[in-house]
Amino acid sequence: MQLGTPESVGLSAQRLEKMTAWMERQVTSNRLAGLSAMIHRRGQNAYFNCTGQMDREAGKPLAEDTIFRIYSMSKPITAVAAMICYEEGHFQLDDPIAKFLPEFTEMQVWDGTPDVLNTVPAEGYITVRHLMTHTAGFSYEFMEATPVEAFYREHKISFNPGRQTEGGNDLAAITSRLATAPLVRQPGSGWGYSVSIDVLGRLVEVWAGQTLGRVFEERIFQPLGMTDTAFSVAADKVDRFAACYEPTSGGGLGGIGSQDMGIRKGEGIGLKLADAPADSKYLQHPDTFSGGGGLTGTIGDYGRFCQMLLQKGELDGNRIL
């Protein structure tokens, strides 16, 4: 990775040392196994650091070319794929998605009765804009806020890549099952983090006439030189694939990103292995191309994607948008 001096883009190398120190504390306090960070400004990379281990069991240090599961950072890539289709005239932002996916024509909506899945008819259609802004009324199966999420779990409505489910496991089949579930709220009436970007990924397949994986590869990854980003990790890259860890207790990673960039007093967190590189499902071609959370890639690849956005849709002579 080519780096310029922080001062050349208006940053302070001395102050950036605080970032480096904070990163090291995340590892020494056992909050994270390893992490990397990059700062890009005014057309060049001005800071990069990685610390800790990508695989603690194997004793492998984290490196610049470590391949991570990027989870929901897949969503902006799906949105770009959709906007490529938009520029080609396949849809308008306020088109009902039922225009392309008829199974969403007559939706029901949970009426808000606690612990009971009573429904009323939807007052309007779900639009493409609703998908892009998480206002469609969908949810996620791992949430437990309403009876709708229980319906998702009962009916195997999950876009988790590689997860074996009944009734078909490709993007079209899971999207069709989703259409049988009630919405959490009326379309357009409020925000809720959800599988809406997975549905957007299915629409990209319909508009482009290709699988989402093929659209990503041909229209985004190849032109941008994102050579390590994909829905699965190739056999010759497994040695660069990070293990995945989760806290041994508690509901999340707590104070990471707190304003003082420090560790909260008495807040030690242990880690346990959640997904080992050697037998991870990401080594296999997935049944589901999850545009909401299925990709793997490197920090350098994602940096190129972000740089394309910063440069208004173009990078190294390749125009994406």
Structural summary, described in words:
With 321 residues, the protein is α+β, with helices and mostly antiparallel strands. Helices cover 27% and strands 14% of the residues. The protein has helices spanning 13-28, 75-87, 128-132, 147-154, 171-178, 196-208, 212-224, 299-310, and strands at residues 34-41, 44-55, 60-61, 68-69, 108-110, 119-121, 244-247, 271-275, 296-297, 314-315, 318-319. A 3-stranded antiparallel sheet has the order 1-2-3. The protein has a two-stranded antiparallel ribbon with strand order 4-9. The chain has a two-stranded antiparallel ribbon with strand order 5-6. Helix 2 runs parallel beside helix 6 and helix 2 (75-87) crosses helix 7. The chain is globular.
